[in-house]
Design goal:
Layout (H helix, E strand, L loop, with lengths): L1 E2 L17 E2 L17 E2 L6 E4 L2 E3 L8 H7 L3 E4 L7 H9 L3 E4 L8 H12 L4 H12 L5 H9 L18
Parallel strand pairs: 1-6, 6-7
Antiparallel strand pairs: 2-3, 4-5
Helix pairs in contact: 3-4, 3-5
Pfam families: Y_phosphatase2
InterPro entries: PFA-DSPs (IPR020428), Prot-tyrosine_phosphatase-like (IPR029021), Siw14-like (IPR004861)
Protein name: Putative tyrosine-protein phosphatase
Length: about 170
């Protein structure tokens, strides 16, 4: 899963159920006396599946921690140059989640560029790549980011598989 700062991408969530997922642990409301408690799982802003076992999202907050736990994620790739907040680091440590930081500067849509380059490796057509990029970037889409994706040289990476599928967990 990748996370990004709060000034990052905006757009719609794809390939997922509604934004709130009930299970078991928060106070019940009014006429629900049979249910003792119910916990709400709230995904981070712009959460979506990129490939099997690979997700993207905006920067998670405390409200998103239960949702992230439910995924059983093993690592987070953080693309921002700013230090990762201590509260989030503690959450990662407590859950055995690795943090890998790559301080990418010069674009607000780090995730969009990274996913766009992955889509090039997966041999998506450029119109589909740009459509996905624009759905998440919304009004903040940059022509320079799309140009970067278009000019990304996949030839040196031809020996990698076409899918980054993580189905063999």
């Amino acid at each position: 899963m990748k996370v990004e700062s709060s000034d990052g991408e905006t757009g719609t969530v794809i390939s997922l159920p509604p934004a709130v997922f009930p299970t078991a642990k928060a106070p019940a409301t009014g006429g629900e006396s049979e249910r003792e408690e119910e916990e709400l799982f709230v995904p981070p802003l712009n959460f979506a599946m990129v490939d099997n076992g690979v997700f993207r999202s905006g920067f998670p907050s405390f409200a998103n921690f239960s949702f992230l736990q439910s995924l059983g994620i093993r690592s987070i790739v953080y693309l921002c140059p700013e230090p990762y907040p201590e509260a989030n680091v503690e959450f990662l440590k407590a859950n055995g989640i690795g943090l890998y930081q790559f301080a990418i500067e010069g674009t607000q849509h780090r995730t969009g560029c990274l996913v766009g380059c992955l889509r090039r490796l997966q041999r998506w057509c450029l119109s589909s790549i740009f459509d996905e990029y624009q759905r998440f970037a919304a009004a903040k889409a940059r022509v320079s980011d799309q140009r970067f994706i278009e000019l990304f040289d996949v030839s040196s990476l031809k020996h990698f598989p076409l899918s980054c599928s993580c189905s063999n967990r």
